[in-house]
Structure formats: C-alpha cells, structure tokens
Amino acid sequence: MKKQLQKNLAKFAFITVLGGSILLLAGCSKGGGEEPQDGDMTEITVNLAGIEGEISEELLLSSSVNGKAKSKQVPQEDISAYTLPDFDAQVAQPADDDYAVNALQKGATVRHTSGGKRMVAVPLASRVRYRIVLYRANGMFHASQQGIVGTQLRINVARGETYRWYAYSYNDTLAVADLADYNNPVVPTSSTRDLITATGTQNISASGNTPLNIVMLHRTNRVAVEINTMGMFSTLTGVTVTLGGDYFTTGGNCNLLTGAVTGGTTATSPVYTVANLPNLPGTNAGDQKVAYYYTVSNNQIPTMRVTLSSLSVTPYGTSTARNFTSSAAFQFNVTAFTSAGRSKKARIDLIESPLTLGTARWARSNLFLNGNSTTGHNPYRFYSTNAYQIDRESYWPWRGLTPGGQAGTGDPCLRVYPLGAWRTPLPTEYQSILSTAHTFSTAAGRPIIYTASTGTVSPYPSNQLVFYANGFGNTIALINDVLNIGLDYNQQGTRAHLWADDQILNVVAGIGTFYYLGTNNPGGFLDPAAQNTQVVTALLNNINVPLLGINILSAGYRNVRCVRNPAVPTTTVP
Question: Which pTM does this prediction carry?
Fold first, then answer.
C-alpha cells in the first residue's frame, strides 16, 4: 500500500512538472499556438548565394566579372612615392571600392541592375560560419541554427506555412553566437569583423523540401589597407601593423529586421601581425596581405596613420628571409562614406631599395621574365641575388617586352610592379657612371664592381652596383627564308652587355641604338675593349618575311638593368 502511494505521488509530480513546462513554453511565444505534428513537417534547405554589393562602372568594365575582359581603364590612382632608409614605397590613397576587392575575385557575377547601379553577388569563402533564425507567421520563435558554408544546412519546418527568417554572419570561420533575446533580434558590430545580414519571408511548399536562397548585405563600413610586397619580389613573412589613433566606432547594434545600426563608441584600434592578415581575396602567393578595419560611422578620417614595423620578406623561390629593423609610417585621408555598408581601399606597395650611382638609382640585379612567360604571377622580376647567370629569361631584345619577342615593342622595366616605378636607363645614365670608382674582378663571371655606389646594405646581399659578364645572344636571322630564333651565346664570362633606352639613331652602317659594354678580358692590345667600360652603338637589323607577314627589328639579346623612374615624384623620409 505504501509503495503504491509513492508511485502515485511520483506520477502526480511528473504530470505537474510537465504541465508547468508546457505552460512556460507557451508563455515564451509571441502569439501562442502549437507546433505542428511530425507528419506535417518538411525541411527548408539553406543556400547562401553570396554577399551583394555595388561595383563601379569603371571596375566592371576593367575586370572580367562577367567573364569577358573589357578595355576601359580604371581611373588613375592618387599615388605618393617615398624613399625610406631600408626600402621604398608607393602609396595609393583610399578610394571607394564598395567591397570590390572581393567583387573582382573568381566566382563573382553581376546579379542585377537596380536604379542604374551594378550589383554583384560575391560567394562566401568556404567554412565561413553563419546563423539562421526562424519565426512562424504568428511571431512564435521556431528555430536557430548555425551553418557552415560548404556544408548543407537543413531545418525542420511545417508544410504550407510562412516563416520570417533572419541570417547573420561575421564573414569568418569563428562561431556565430545566438541571439541574446529572440524577442529583440539585434546583433553587435565589431571593429575587426565584417557583419553581414539578410532577412525575408519564405513560403514552405506543401510537398517536398523548400530551398531558401540568401544574399547577404554588408552592415558596417570598412577601410582596407593592402600591404603589397610584389615590388620586393617576395612573400610577406612578418610585419606588425599599428594605427596612430583610435579612428573607428564599434559596439553598435544592428537590427536584423531593418538592417539599421544604432549606438556605438570609439573602439581601440587593433594591432595586426602577419599571422592574422589574410591574403587579398583572389590571391594566394602571400605577397598581397590586407588589414581590415570596420566602423559604424560614416565620418571622414583625414589623418589615418598606419605604421609598419618588424617587416620580414622572403624572396620568391628562396627560404632565407630579409628582416628589416626600421619602421615606416604612412598617412591616409579616408573620405566620408556616403552610406552604411561601403568600403574604401588603400594600398602600400613596398619596393626593393635601389643603389645610387651617377645620375640614376639602379636596380640591384638584372631583369628577367619569370618562367619566360607573361602569364604567371608577377612575371617581371629582379633576381634575388646578383650573380653570373645565362638564363634565357634574362636576355632581352632592344625595347622588347619578352625575351623571345620582337624588338621595339616597349620598355620591359615599365612592366615591373608597381607599374611605372622603373624604366630602362638612358645612354647618358650609363655614361654618368663610366668614370666612377670601379674594379674588375677575376671571380666567376668577371664582374665589374662599382665601389662608389651607395645604398642600404643589410638585409640585402650588398650595396655595390655590379654588372656580370653574361655576354649576349645572337641576332634573329633568316636562313633559307626561314626565321631562326635559336639563341647562341657570345662573350660569356668576358663582357657585360646591358641595353640602354633611347630613340633609334642613324649611324653610318644603318639604324642603331646604344648599350653598355664592360669587359674584364685581359686581352691586352689584341682587345681594345679589355679592362674598360663604354657605351657603344648596336646595329638594328630590319628582318622582313613577306610570306609570314613579319617585320622584325633585331639587334641580338642583352641583359637589362632597370633604374628608378624619376617621373614618379618621390619624398625622402628619414
């Protein structure tokens, strides 16, 4: 009897607790109502189609967003050039890109035109986390689930019903917290994370699963600062990026229904290192990193100061880093944002420092076309070390854009990144160094060493301007009316041949141009050019092949040593 009484009391307690729980759940809903039974349930399949943003007509026409390259040029950037103790830099002031740094990456497509604006849907990166919150039509909270881009997300829903949904993400792989209050769907902003959201309603099919396609929108403004080491022909392996003040506002709340952001306070500016600097979207070489700063303010930042310190780069194809001890500070004018969800991008191009001698600032080593192809990443490069070498990719025709191409087509030094920072030397610039202090070495390649050159030594291998006796390649020729472009080397190990850039001159034997000739060949009176340097003329042969429709200007193949382009105004920073 006693045991039966205990069972009845336990049963009563269970029913009481269960009833209280049901009442509690009902009290949490906005409109009440019962959840559908299992037989009425189906699934909604979530698909994040991307992030929507506006792209300018200029960027659209100059890119291949639509899969077709356009010829219209992007407007000229506001560029400032700096000479720093350890390296040089060119700085592009912030310009509106409306998140176009993402929009130009592979996979971006023009989504629609609305009110004359070009909109693009940019796919989210794999493994980005997001959260979906669903409410029934009567306002009752239904579900909140976290999803991962690349993994299918399915949520149980009732057939035939209509749901209000909210989606939000910080566009990274970190966990996305649930709403603090389902009755007040707001989420916080961040100065280091990109808040993207979307909302809408979805009718659920009476049969089969229902797809939910979502395009997110940016809710905060962004300043992107790209740190680019392509001009150092290196990957960025170490850096600390600090700001000169607390320029940004964060801590505001974004209303998921309206997208409006309210509140916010001044945020402490983050400090970035190479470990938390992502690659610029669409790149993977490690020489284009970007620091992102987010703000809920639309205000101008006229003097945003960015300092780079503890800089370390590793030249392409090597494993030895170059560590720089000095820091460099740059100032930017971030103009006002026209509305929320906009982006501006600045760029800092770091450039290998030159060596000064005579009237020019010289590259430390010869120009080559990486892989002898213009299609690879950053193809126009300087060798990481200056040495005797006979690589085909470093012998150029006069004013030729490719080592195996036609002469007279352009200045290859202008193609070195950043474009226009370098050019081929003038004959007068070679002449300005002929009488300066130099020695003739008997080492391999018999280098000519200009001991009077000045420039930074460490962490570069040397601060001496050195030309190696790499010789030259024979001219293109016609043999039995067949074009012969085979390369035979001449004077390797005895003479240095380097092209000068000039207008074609009339010489006694026909048409000619200039090049630098230096030799360390102890030939005595049998070799008038022994132990000297000079600027001489080269004949340019006009080879015409009517049957092939080819008219080739040729004078053989020589090395190219670039000089800094004085047409780019430069400020010296101590």
Answer: 0.83
